[in-house]
Write a structure and sequence with these properties.
Layout lengths: L11 H30 L3
Length: 44
């Protein structure tokens, strides 16, 4: 097993995954707010 050196870990995959998670969360919140506004406008 290779010797671990602090600060040399490749984090590209984790960063892309987190970016996707944040994008999904933002879009989900936008859609939910849109649905709530639509429901408020049609007096649901």
């Amino acid at each position: 097993m290779a010797e671990h050196k602090h600060g040399e870990m490749n984090t590209e995959v984790q960063e892309k995954t987190f970016e996707g998670f944040v994008r999904f969360t933002v879009w989900s919140v936008v859609v939910i707010i849109g649905i709530l506004l639509f429901m408020a406008l049609v007096n649901s």
